[in-house]
Amino acid sequence: MFNIALFGAGRIGQVHAVNIANHPETNLYSVIDPYLEGAQKLAIQYDAVIQSVEEAMADPAVHGVCIGSATDTHANLIELAAQNGKAIFCEKPIDLDLSRVRDCLAVVKQHNAPMMVGFNRRYDPQFRQVREQLSAGVIGKAESLLITSRDPSPPPAEYSKVSGGMFRDMTIHDLDMARFIIGEDPVSISAHGSCMVDPAIGEAGDIDTAVIVMNFPSGAIATITNSRRSGYGYDQRIELHGEKGLLQAGNVKENLVQHWGEQGCISAKPQHFFLERYQAAYIAEWQRFVDVLAGKCEPECNGYDGEQALVLAEAALEALHSGKTVSL
Amino acid sequence: MFNIALFGAGRIGQVHAVNIANHPETNLYSVIDPYLEGAQKLAIQYDAVIQSVEEAMADPAVHGVCIGSATDTHANLIELAAQNGKAIFCEKPIDLDLSRVRDCLAVVKQHNAPMMVGFNRRYDPQFRQVREQLSAGVIGKAESLLITSRDPSPPPAEYSKVSGGMFRDMTIHDLDMARFIIGEDPVSISAHGSCMVDPAIGEAGDIDTAVIVMNFPSGAIATITNSRRSGYGYDQRIELHGEKGLLQAGNVKENLVQHWGEQGCISAKPQHFFLERYQAAYIAEWQRFVDVLAGKCEPECNGYDGEQALVLAEAALEALHSGKTVSL
Amino acid sequence: MFNIALFGAGRIGQVHAVNIANHPETNLYSVIDPYLEGAQKLAIQYDAVIQSVEEAMADPAVHGVCIGSATDTHANLIELAAQNGKAIFCEKPIDLDLSRVRDCLAVVKQHNAPMMVGFNRRYDPQFRQVREQLSAGVIGKAESLLITSRDPSPPPAEYSKVSGGMFRDMTIHDLDMARFIIGEDPVSISAHGSCMVDPAIGEAGDIDTAVIVMNFPSGAIATITNSRRSGYGYDQRIELHGEKGLLQAGNVKENLVQHWGEQGCISAKPQHFFLERYQAAYIAEWQRFVDVLAGKCEPECNGYDGEQALVLAEAALEALHSGKTVSL
Amino acid sequence: MFNIALFGAGRIGQVHAVNIANHPETNLYSVIDPYLEGAQKLAIQYDAVIQSVEEAMADPAVHGVCIGSATDTHANLIELAAQNGKAIFCEKPIDLDLSRVRDCLAVVKQHNAPMMVGFNRRYDPQFRQVREQLSAGVIGKAESLLITSRDPSPPPAEYSKVSGGMFRDMTIHDLDMARFIIGEDPVSISAHGSCMVDPAIGEAGDIDTAVIVMNFPSGAIATITNSRRSGYGYDQRIELHGEKGLLQAGNVKENLVQHWGEQGCISAKPQHFFLERYQAAYIAEWQRFVDVLAGKCEPECNGYDGEQALVLAEAALEALHSGKTVSL
């Protein structure tokens, strides 16, 4: 049984808390959050203790840390955990600043700390099935990947600033997905964007509608279509074209009931947002981290992956502003 | 080029007129209808002559007849055509009275007249595909057939009388379809019905909602589900379960566009009624009759098929009233 | 927190064990099984004790019993639990003999014991959605219900005897589903069956392919299509036609990935069998029992429902053998 | 009745011949093709005469011309037809050279000749439905369009030269589709391509896999995904995202039968290629030209549209080679 210290008792912290507690090999040992009321609620619910950052890091009973706190605390907590010999699971991003990310990863490397970055979609059973069928040769060599990712509704315009903007916050998942599916690092990237959903987002210097295209060494091309508002729930699909055919992973609907009537045939919307759609992914992701803790396997989505996704987000931003394809 | 005399210039006559005229090997030679205005309209449109029944039957230029007139004229016209050496295409039913049907078929047999009965659905590309995949062994031996057949909206209650009631008028197509798919004559039939759609239909002694079950010599079971009103267009589906799997032929929709929005995912209704849904079937059916005219093949849906469908409709009626399975 | 004594450590007992343990308001207190090794395995896994039937029934710490033992033990255990003031959750059937069921329910009634019978499919999110949309008036009045239920592969022929045959073992779920969806007790039933899958099943006096039709007081008709072998996984669908349209609950597939290639478009099979397909249903069912334990609601699927499903299974058997519709 | 002179008796000429002959208001009057055998075959089949270019242009009985001959004859024939007062239907492209196109259109304008360019996909019932639902406000303002267009298999490498390359030959349809759906001329275009399907195509200086992105004045973004080989038939889909939701027009399959079996659920491939998929589109396109001939409406897809599609194809080529977004 591995004892886990959970940093952050907010929305994503609560997702991890359930999964840590339900997993037969992990124990939610402690909760750390400057907002004490939130920490207490989780601690009581799962019979955990409350600790300070220092206590948790120094506590020899803690085997691993799960970092789901505010983005600007990630890099520090990672470094402390690495220095204290804890296995590290950290929500994306490591940091919004690339040089800070690199410094942090150097510390992780120096202490040889096992570290996994939370690109949860890699563990979505649908997307993983696409990756596995590609590996099994079902469609031959990958040629063209299309990732559709649309949020149900836009965040407040001010969120653009704290989140680092659409590419660093939202598209970063799709950039990682492209690397995961194609299995290569891209050689170039271009980006197109506009502000169609909320003018306030544009005034804040961000976009809400985008298309990003990447070329890969094998010749494969990946296209990402993003919007901050779908109008029909969380739109999360991928489509991979290869030598011998196509693999499509469609949306997961709220239910499978169809109603035929005057209006036609109506079926349910996609599951509303990431908490619903990626529930199974979060569980599978945690299983992977437990396997890392147990020494059964390497982290699949590691610091390098976290760094590369940010590298691509920054290059996409440069391409958007310059109107030129950026070489990587 | 075969010259065709068309009996009946109403709705179904017009369907056949187009197909006769468009087929490169048939010519719409004459139109016969006591309602002269209708006959004239068709005759002008397709450059045909107007004839009386006697003229058409006596005219040596007429190679084949297409009978789409009122039901109670079918048997007479068939007999006249057989006696005059014409090839016969007749819309279902031959007659609503079984002994009349048998007398008529005896005349057809005596004159060795090629005759095809218009169970158009046998020529629907979807249903035929099911039959062909069964023949090709795709699902092994047939075990359980489900036919769903629902009209978009009920006929006037008084139509129950002239049509011979739901089983003789509507279900008869499904009874023929079961024989066509399974490829056997059933050994028993049972029926269940109620009047759910329009009380006036019940007052006229008919039903509007029904389930019919047939057992076949091979052990296969066929189930027919009928309603006089769907609420969503013309519902025409079949599902065939066999040793090694299932074949499903779904509805043909008005278009293939899907709209994802607040309400969910909406796609179009099934094509409205038989003129739309079975347009391709009517064309393929006519092609088959042309092949019969050309001596290339036997009528696939012949007098025996017409008789058997009526036998089953009557047995279903008996089963409905007695609450007992009727042996055939 | 309610303490639960689990009777039966076999396949279905293990399903309940997980759900009891994972539910925040129930505790897997004890396991009872004459096969001690199985009981021990479960007890260790969930930190429960092993008890004899007598110990569990006499133990005041036990709030409720979950009966998942062999069918012929159900009625006795129910009576003992009722006499000892425990809330009762029992897998279907109560007993294969109707008079034994009635005696047992009399005891339950006498002691006013809360009792729920495990017709798990009522809690399937898809089927429940159909029931709820019907209640919400989405399709108006129910007119025709179709239940498709096919197992992936047949049981051994000898199972026919211990299980009471296909109708009492398998169809009984569909008979209950029809009552659940339509919300009435049927007035008549007829049945058609054959042995298409395995001749040994026929030699054992049972069937493996069936169609059952029921009429309800409202005029609604329900049709059940059963097979002991699908060839494509567990086929569990319902289709409800009403005044204003149709509701369809399709199969839950193993995944949502489609592969387009030379052969066409291939998507995954339905989930293999009941453990996969009804996983969510078992959890929801247990939630309902917890609500009953907490006094928040009445058992939704009670002794009467258990009795009626068996009454229908026996009437279906009579109808099958007599070839007559049986009035209820 | 309008008399039509058909230029070109090859594959596309034969498509138009049937539609001209079947339309109640047009008559296939003459066929013109330097390959006399082909011209004769068509002429006999449809009871038309054979003419030389000069004869047809000079013949006052000819009301309209249908140009389906080799690409390098289009511009000349258009000019001759305009000078001789014929209504013009011409297959795309007008010419592969933009200045030749402009000269040709100047002649058409000078003679005020009605002219329609054959971008047949505009008349596909599925795509038109998307355009109409957009116009009807179903999804609000258009924001992001995705056009998927993949041929079933690549042309011979040498075809790259005569066809002007993938963008001028294949993508040109998608460029026109984007203008048709969005209803604006784009302000910029970028392009990405590689040679994944056949190295000989790359050696011939062309590509076979591409992604093109266009920005429109309204802020809308259109993305085109192309491949010269699908592996599963002709892949022709569009997906339009707007303020209030999504419209998807999927592929038209060869049939609607699904087979559930050991492998999963298999449905048919998309219709094989353009002759099958766009059969209805060609008929609707011809109906539009007849309406133009009858003076009922303006050409919907005119010389300007033909020119603009080529402008976009050339700009895409420039963008591909420069790695820069090209402003228009």
Automatic annotation (TrEMBL), chains A, B, C, D:
InterPro entries: Gfo/Idh/MocA-like_OxRdtase_N (IPR000683), GFO_IDH_MocA-like_dom (IPR055170), Myo_inos_IolG (IPR030827), NAD(P)-bd_dom_sf (IPR036291). Pfam families: GFO_IDH_MocA, GFO_IDH_MocA_C3. It comes from the Bacteria. The keyword Flavoprotein does not apply. Residues 127-247 form the GFO/IDH/MocA-like oxidoreductase domain. Gene3D superfamilies: Dihydrodipicolinate Reductase, domain 2 (3.30.360.10), NAD(P)-binding Rossmann-like Domain (3.40.50.720). Keywords: Oxidoreductase. One of its GO terms (molecular function) is nucleotide binding. Residues 2-119 form the Gfo/Idh/MocA-like oxidoreductase N-terminal domain. The keyword Transferase does not apply. NCBIfam families: myo_inos_iolG (TIGR04380). Belongs to the Gfo/Idh/MocA family. This is Inositol 2-dehydrogenase. It comes from Photobacterium proteolyticum. The lineage of its organism: Bacteria, Pseudomonadati, Pseudomonadota, Gammaproteobacteria, Vibrionales.
